[in-house]
Amino acid sequence: MLKKIIFISLVFFSCANQKLPLAKKKDFTINYQNLNEISGIVKSRKFKDLFWAHNDSDCPPCVFPIDSKGHFVKDDPSIKDNNYFGYYINGANNIDWEDICYDGDSNLVIGDFGNNKNKRKNLALYAFKEPNPYQDQVAKLAYKISFKYEDQKNFPPKSYFSKNFDCEALFYYKENFYLLTKNWGNFQTNIYILPAKKNTKNQIAKKILTFNIRGLVTAVDIDEDEIVVLTYNSINSFQLVTENSKIKDLKLSQTIPLDLAYFGQIEAICYTKKDQVLVTNEQGSCYLIDL
C-alpha cells in the first residue's frame, strides 16, 4: 500500500513541476554485503576524500568509511569487502536509522527516527566521536538524546492525513538540531528544533515551521547558511533565515526536479563542495549533481 501511494504521489508531483527533470547516469556504486541499503551519508570534515554512510533499519549499529569512488576505506586492506563490518557504535541501537550529520563538537550524529507507521515512542539521536578509518578502533558513543514531538498525541494518529511524524532528515545549526519530517498525510514537511543537550531523555522537539515541499523528504545537508533538501523527485536549495542564532524561515533558492527512471528511490544527500552534492539511492547508485 505504501509503495503504491509513493508511486502515485511522485508521478503527480513530477508532472506538476514545469522544469525538465534531470536525467543522469550514475557516477559510481556503493553496494556491499554489509552496506546494502544506504539511508544516510555525510562528507568527512576531518579526512580527505572520505564519506561516512550507514544502513537503514534493523541492521547492526555501524558506520562505514567510503572514498569518492565508492570503495571501503579500511585500516587493514587484507580484509575482504564482504567481511568488512565498518565501525560498531557501542551503546547505540539501529531501529530505523535515517540520516547522519555533524554536531558543534565535530561528533557524528545519527538520527534513529524512521517512523513509517507513526507509532514509535523511542526516537533518538546517537552522537559519537568520528573514528580514524586508518586505525583499528571502535566508534565511541559520546551521548544520546531521546525525544518526542510536542504535537503528537496519538501513536499512531487516528487519521491517515495526520500521519506526519515520520522523519528521515537531520542537520545541526548553532547549538540546535533540526528535523524535517516526511509527511505521508499531506506531502509537506514540518521542521522541528531540538536543543543539543547531551544525554537527555524525553526532550521535546518543537515545531517551528511547515513548508509545502510537494513531496516526501528523505534527507538534508547543511553548508554554512544553506541547506539542500532531498525528496523522491527533487533537490531543493534553501537559504536559512535566522533570528538570535535560530532558524525562523527558509528561502527557496532553486529546485532541481529529478527523473525517477534514472534515480530510483533516492534516500541520502550530502555536499561534496559548495556547488555540488552527492545523492545515493537504496541500491547504492551514486550521483554527483552540480547546483
What does this structure look like?
The protein is mainly beta. Helices cover 7% and strands 48% of the residues. Strands 2, 3, 4, 5, 6, 7, 8, 9, 10, 11, 12 and 13 form a 12-stranded mixed sheet that branches. Strands 1-20-19-18 form a 4-stranded antiparallel sheet, with no helix packed on it. Strand 18 and strand 19 (276-281) form a beta hairpin. The chain is globular and about 50 Å long. The chain starts with a helix and ends with a strand.
Total of domains: 1
The total beta strand count reads 20
Instruction: Tell me the number of helical segments per DSSP (H or I, 4 or more residues long).
Output: 2
Query: What is the third-level CATH name, the topology?
Result: Neuraminidase
- Mean pLDDT figure: 91
The shape is globular
Question: What is the highest CATH level, the class?
Answer: Mainly Beta
In what range is the share of β-strand residues?
Answer: over 45%
The main β sheet shows up as: 12 strands, mixed
> Unreliable segments (pLDDT under 50, ≥5 consecutive)?
1-17
**Rg estimate, integer Å:** 18 Å
Q: H/E series, N to C?
A: HEEEEEEEEEEEEEEEEEHEEE
**Helix content bin:** under 10%
Named CATH architecture: 6 Propeller
